[in-house]
Amino acid sequence: MTGTHHHREERLRRQAEAELRARPPLPPWQKRVVERFAVERPAGWYTLLNQFAPHTPENRPDVVLAGPRGVLAVLLREEDPGWEDARAAFVWTAELLAGVPTPHGLLTEAALRTVVVRPAGSATGHSGEHLTVAEDDLDRILLRGEEVLERADALSAARQLSSRTFDLTPIGWNPQRIPEPRAAGETGVSGRSSGLFDVDELREQRFERALEGPMPDWRIFLDDTQLGLVRRRYSGPARITGPAGTGKTVLALHRLAYLARRSSGELLYTTHLSTLPRIAEKQFRSLARQVGHRVRFQHLHGWAKEFLAARGRDSEADDRQIEEAFLAAWQRAGQGGPLAAARPSRGYWKDEIDRVIKGRGLRSLEAYKTAPRRGRGGNLTPGFRAHVWEFYCEYERELGERGVSDHNDILLRALTELGRTPLERPFTAVVVDEVQDLTLIGLRLAHAISGDGPNQLLLVGDGQQQVYAGGWRLSEAGIALGGRGEILRRNYRNRTAIVDEAGELDAVNRFDDLDGGPTVALRSALPVLGGGRAVRWRGPDQEEALLSALRRLDDTADAAVLTRTNNAAEHWENVLRAAGFQVSPLDRWDGTPSPAIHVGTVHRAKGTEFRSVFLPDEPRIATNHREEQEASQRQQLVAITRARDFVWTGFVESD
Ligand SMILES: Nc1ncnc2c1ncn2[C@@H]1O[C@H](COP(=O)(O)OP(=O)(O)OP(=O)(O)O)[C@@H](O)[C@H]1O
């Protein structure tokens, strides 16, 4: 330790001592702790002492610290407090911190942790949502752990805390005297020590900065719309829409953490995709590890299966047998008949059963004759629908003979079971991500799981990214939004060149328009990051071209090859492996960065993102059907918008 350093420490200690002398005395060990905090000022820690200490109410922090490792709500206690008090201290501090404008965005409560400090020699460790350390181990919170705030952010937080309440008094620093710190490239932002600020000006400056520097950490900083929606109280079901990359999932995860900390019971994040819950769970743990155990991440079919099994009901669906049943039905009643004559693709008729007949839970030909089939095309007359119904009955018979259920049966059975006997312990809140691709029955099930209470159901989606025509209105699922619909408009993922590339697609929004709400196209969202690169390759030897484009990447980490079909994914896995690349199939990925090239279908990639995305051309059956062309465009839009910096699209052309 240098002499000057020692001298400065001593000066800060004496200053803190003098300030502490002017107030009710603290027990000696607490005094030592506060002095130690104050001495860390040059390292960027700002100390605020509760004016009631040492008689602070049990559910309030004795000290709040803002510094490089975040904001700490510190409880100085002889004994470990109960979780309710520790949690209440967190929430009290979080409410004061809410939306502190910093040079990097609005501060979220993910920057905040609860720490209990006990006298030297006490038992320590993690308990529930807080960390306990002993007086002689303060280095653990002050010097170790991830740095999440820059000095300017920490100072903004400390100033806000001191200006928003008389309960917290600065120790060892003066909020009025420290000059307003400026972030790189910022000019003339000053005079905001009172916490007052010009929102528009700030928003603009943040936006400009974002274009220059690295992206702020989404866990710690959000934009104003996002943060507003994290904290909004909804009196019933609500919906968040917005084009790709606008932070819908990020917002949903923050909201789950926010609600978890202000409630008891379990929360659920669900979607129809099996891959996304795993990735979202991982992100959530990095955002709010302390409440990780309170939120269940599970795809809807998985939830339904588990629920039915717990109720002693049949819950198995065997994909191979389902496929066999369908093929048998197609051979007997499909191919060679009126269905194949109208549309030769058997996949189309499988979708008709999955999305319309069973997806809507239709029980009779009469109901099917008048059922809406939005986005499915074909304009089937009631007479023709009788043929489809016959085919469907054949499929059901085949399933029955094999004694198997398909995935729609499972959802419907779970819905019926819930209607019979509701959940013993309802979820506190349910988030449904990628809602645009749910069937009507799936949506009804999600609604039945959540209920209509305040903050209980949040639907997150984007109609432009719809891959399956669902053709429902929320009202058909009994969901009334009552104006609780919000739109995000700032694209944090895709650089400008990527947005421009995807913007050329004419992807019809098949979801938002169903409820008559406003629709937002990808192009009308503002990319926060400029630059990027989009390459369209044309030629005969696509494999060679794609491999050499991959080799030209300065860093292959975080690259993906996305395909339309499983067969194509398998093909590219083999091609890449043969060329010496490490390959990681998308269906097993949990979002952990890896040097391997991810390969999988666009469907599997929904909700994810990569630095570079490769979209090889695939043989496709040409179609004149408008809805198939539209669906294909929407799929391409999903594919392109998985790319952050670079997208490569192949078009095979023979010589
Ligand atoms: N406020 C923010 N600051 C910095 N990064 C952000 C912010 N909000 C979102 N991001 C980042 O933007 C990217 C897209 O976020 P997210 O996946 O939540 O978007 P989305 O709207 O759900 O996209 P999609 O509809 O395509 O699945 C992620 O990399 C996320 O970390």
UniProtKB/TrEMBL annotation:
Keywords: ATP-binding, Helicase, Hydrolase, Nucleotide-binding
Gene3D superfamilies xref list: P-loop containing nucleotide triphosphate hydrolases
Keyword Iron-sulfur in record: no
Ion transport in keyword set: no
InterPro entries attached to this UniProt entry: DNA_helicase_UvrD/REP (IPR000212), P-loop_NTPase (IPR027417), UvrD-like_ATP-bd (IPR014016)
Pfam families: UvrD-helicase
Domain (UvrD-like helicase ATP-binding) ranges: 221-512
Name this polypeptide is given: UvrD-helicase domain-containing protein
Organism: Saccharopolyspora taberi
